Amino acid sequence: MEVLTPKEMGQADRLAEQAGRSLWHLMQAAGGSVAREALARFPDRRSVAVLCGPGNNGGDGYVAARLLRESGLAVDVWRSAEPKPGSDAARAADAWKGAVGALADFTPQADMLVIDALFGAGLARDLDGAEREAVERVKAAGSVVLAVDLPSGVSGSSGEVMGEALQADCTVTFFRPKPGHLLYPGRALCGEVVVADIGIPAGVLADIEPQLWANEPAQWRHALPRPKNIAHKYQRGHVAVFSGKMSATGAARLSADAAARAGAGAVTVLSPPDAMAALATHLTATMLHRFDAPEDVLAFIKERKVHAAVCGPGFGTGEKQKAVVETLMHESDVPLVIDADAITVLSQDLDCFLAVRNSGEPTLVLTPHEGEFGRLFPDLAENKTLSKVERARLAAARAKAVVIYKGADTVIAASDGRAAINTNGTVWLATAGSGDVLAGLVAALLGQGMPPFEAACAAVWIHGQAGQREGFGLTAEDLPQAARKVLAELISR
Ligand SMILES: NC(=O)C1=CN([C@@H]2O[C@H](COP(=O)(O)OP(=O)(O)OC[C@H]3O[C@@H](n4cnc5c(N)ncnc54)[C@H](O)[C@@H]3O)[C@@H](O)[C@H]2O)[C@@H](O)CC1
Ligand SMILES: Nc1ncnc2c1ncn2[C@@H]1O[C@H](COP(=O)(O)OP(=O)(O)O)[C@@H](O)[C@H]1O
Ligand SMILES: [K+]
């Protein structure tokens, strides 16, 4: 599903108006869907308090208040400021025939349903004054909260907290989700998100051309690899994975196993001399090849027709490793997944690494977690005005790469501006080696010919689904087999 920034949502609103859906009618539908969710989800609440702000978010609140009262509930409205005279919100406020209290006088109770219609997409600065104090009181009282569009204080474009924010049990948003619903901490503050249809025609999206999606199979399933019946193993993708020294071979094996389970026809671990024995005792279907110097790597990639390579997991960051990364970046056009230690190596001189790599723009996928992202792109990481999506996009454009900016809300971004936010991750994936598996999944899909952005999105989703299947106590070793089952289901449907 497309994700719209608050600005794009404003555009949707205007386009809907041009198509004959007035804001007044959209507001009635928005308030109606809030009232419906309130009745369906919280039927046992003895009283309802609707907190209305000065804008259209408040307007939705007045509509919901009227409808809830008409359905027989005890409803009170508390407002921080009057809506602008002549606005649709003012008209909605006029249609509310009950009393209106000043927000400063509102005393929340634990058994009340609070409908938060203070601010939505229009939140422009940190919460302060009466609104902030009301938010603090509601939090302290522990009332159940249903947020209209967004919990007040959550930025719709970044999910960041602006000063203070409500914790909602449920958030009803309209037409399409916004980044603030999917990016942390906003995602957690929204509670369950309901996306309500308020009559904005989907056709407006053709004009808006959104470049952000919630990561879902519908976006990339068509591009999943489906080998021809007569394919031989090297036509199903040959993936090479670089191993580190003897005491650090497990990470490469995890990537290699993941690549094989995600359908690569052949997987080879490239090993420095001292790790050969350790790897030989552990590898079975996966092949093993020794390299002494970067030239050996180049020769192997060429002669054995490697379709994608993973470099980084357990690799090391010394001079020898740097020389390999340099060779891969500067002298080879094999599609590359650069993870972990290889990211650290790149970050020592990113501009130089990219300058040469960029000349032909061969496929590059970078998979930094938060710490590695900060090392690679310190200026972007420190820029607090940017959302995680914007940081990932700028990084992707700068590196001419697909960037998988990992975390609980992994963002995948391409250099052309497309981006996706992943939502199916689980905390059980926060375990050593889980990222190594992800790198192997990406390489497998790239090696089988899937386009890089789609391959990265698919790998992240499959990884998330595998984590959910295995759940509590999973270790990274469990993920490749689970990923295989997820992928098998995706391609059989
Ligand atoms: N875009 C659409 O298609 C629709 C939007 N609707 C509602 O309209 C909302 C957006 O309405 P608005 O653009 O009026 O924005 P809001 O109602 O979210 O708030 C904007 C108002 O608050 C002020 N403000 C911003 N931050 C403040 C702060 N920290 N302290 C004090 N005042 C602050 C602004 O100056 C502005 O007057 C959405 O969240 C949604 O609830 C719905 O009515 C239906 C259709
Ligand atoms: N709390 C979380 N919820 C969902 N996914 C998570 C969470 N924490 C980490 N992950 C995912 O787990 C993986 C961890 O990768 P990484 O940090 O590289 O670990 P490692 O280096 O141990 O392999 C990433 O795909 C990341 O998105
Ligand atoms: K709100």
Automatic annotation (TrEMBL):
Q: What is its EC number?
A: 4.2.1.136, 5.1.99.6
Question: Which parts of the sequence belong to the YjeF C-terminal domain?
Answer: 216-490
Q: Where is the YjeF N-terminal domain?
A: 9-206
The record lists (6S)-NADPHX as bound by 56-60, 120-126, 149, 251, 314, 369, 436
Quote the record's cofactor note: Binds 1 potassium ion per subunit.
Q: Which UniProt keywords apply?
A: ATP-binding, Isomerase, Lyase, Metal-binding, Multifunctional enzyme, NAD, NADP, Nucleotide-binding, Potassium
Record function comment:
Catalyzes the epimerization of the S- and R-forms of NAD(P)HX, a damaged form of NAD(P)H that is a result of enzymatic or heat-dependent hydration. This is a prerequisite for the S-specific NAD(P)H-hydrate dehydratase to allow the repair of both epimers of NAD(P)HX.
Q: Please state which protein family the record places this protein in.
A: Belongs to the NnrD/CARKD family. Belongs to the NnrE/AIBP family.
Name of the protein in question: Bifunctional NAD(P)H-hydrate repair enzyme
Originating organism? Tianweitania aestuarii
Name the encoding gene, please. Answer: nnrE
